[in-house]
Amino acid sequence: MLDQTRAIFKGTPVVSGMARGRIRTVRGWEKEVALAAETILIARFPIPRISPLLKHASALLCAYGASDSFLAAQARACGIPAVFNLGGSIEALPEAAWVSVDGANGLVRCDREHV
């Protein structure tokens, strides 16, 4: 975490772009997941089983992973911002919290007024 007072997380930029939406944590074993508009997916690792969800997501955040992974390539193909290597602290964000994602700079900001 870059700044605890404002809940700003710094990770590795993977796909540039800006997005704002609500967090939805995915584990990879979900068979079907209904995603609302403006959903930001959070995963611990960039596993390929998550890739079908990307076409409905606004952005992708991963606690760990490489920018040359399969899921990173899929995020690029879908044109959604992605930030990896945010560490385990990103998983502590409450489900459905509002966040802003800056994929070019690898920043994620929790919008506390919407938590």
CATH fold node name: Glucose Oxidase, domain 1
Secondary-structure arrangement, i.e. CATH architecture: 3-Layer(bba) Sandwich
Distance between the termini: 17 Å
- CATH homologous superfamily assignment: Phosphohistidine domain
Count of separate structural domains: 1
Rg computed from alpha carbons, rounded to a whole number of angstroms: 12 Å
Give the topology string: H per helix, E per strand: EEEEEHEEE
Number of helices: 1
Written overview of the protein:
There is one protein chain. With 115 residues, the chain is mainly β. It has one domain: Phosphohistidine domain (Glucose Oxidase, domain 1). It is 8% helix and 31% strand. It is built from 1 helix and 8 strands. It has an 8-stranded mixed sheet. β7 (98-102) and β8 form a beta hairpin. The protein is globular and about 35 Å long. The two termini are 17 Å apart. Residues 1-5 have low confidence and may be disordered.
Short description:
By secondary structure, this protein is mostly beta strands. It is built from one helix and eight strands; from the N terminus they run E-E-E-E-E-H-E-E-E.
